[in-house]
Amino acid sequence: MIICEDLLFSRGAILEKYDAGDSVFKEGTAAKYYFQIRHGTVKMNTFLEDGKEFVHGLPFDGHCIGESYLFTSHHYAINAIAVTNCEIIKISKTKFLQLLLEKPELMLEINKYTADRLHFRYMISSFLAISDPIVKLTKLFDHLKKYFGFEEAYSFLIPYTRQQIATLTGLRVETVIRYVKKMQELKLVKIESTKIYY
Predict the structure, then answer these.
(1) Residue 11: left if φ>0, alpha if ψ -120 to 50, beta else—which one?
(2) Is 33 helix (H, G, I), strand (E, B) or coil?
(3) What are the start-end ranges of the E strands in the chain?
């Protein structure tokens, strides 16, 4: 988690529940709240003119979303949509910025998180130039495993479904299924039921 939940609640944050498919915020609206996911997965996306969807990320438990917009006058250029049932901590922009003024060390945590997410987005963008599905999947799995501090083989449970992996890598879900099986044959991953261990 980026900011201690108790601290947020002590400053007036509330806990909101979202059903899968609910909008947390929409492209073109003003940023009025700091959002931190207590439980669930949220899809950060943009719908293109041809109706296609571009997914920027799938943050989950402990991540914050849209926080960079609290420091600008820009409206959201993305949507945030609950993928699963979610519990999200929400505090007003005014109270959040006041908290940062009182506890400037929190700004370092926010900056570190934002920098990590930018790194992830740059890496995901590079997938457009990679044609080999195993290279794409390995890069994604390497990043996630490193981010969460795992090192041993098969020690990290990939936190995404095959559909979500497809969305992040720009592959078709059938391709992800096929190449994850191939990665298992190459002993790069271990599959137990529907779970992928890397």
Answers:
(1) alpha
(2) strand
(3) 14-18, 23-25, 33-39, 42-47, 53-57, 64-65, 79-82, 86-92, 190-192, 195-197
Q: Is 54 helix (H, G, I), strand (E, B) or coil?
A: strand
Residue 168: enclosing H or E segment and its boundaries? helix 162-169
pLDDT of residue 48: 84
Report the distance separating Cα 182 and Cα 158, nearest Å. 16
Please state the φ and ψ torsions of residue 193, each to the nearest 5 degrees: 60, -115
Q: Are 175 and 183 in contact (CB under 8 A)?
A: no
Alpha-carbon span 37 to 64, nearest angstrom: 6
* CA nearest neighbour of 188 among 147, 132, 148: 132
pTM: 0.83
Query: How many other C-beta atoms are found inside a 10 Å radius of the C-beta of residue 93?
Result: 15
Q: What is the pLDDT of residue 126?
A: 84
CB 160 within 8 A of CB 145: no
**Six token digits for residue 109:** 């945590």
CB 110 within 8 Å of CB 66: no
The whole-number mean pLDDT for each consecutive block of 10 residues of the chain, a chain of 198 residues, reads 96 98 98 98 91 88 96 97 97 98 96 90 84 95 91 95 91 96 97 96
Nearest to 120 by CA among 55, 179, 183, 23: 55
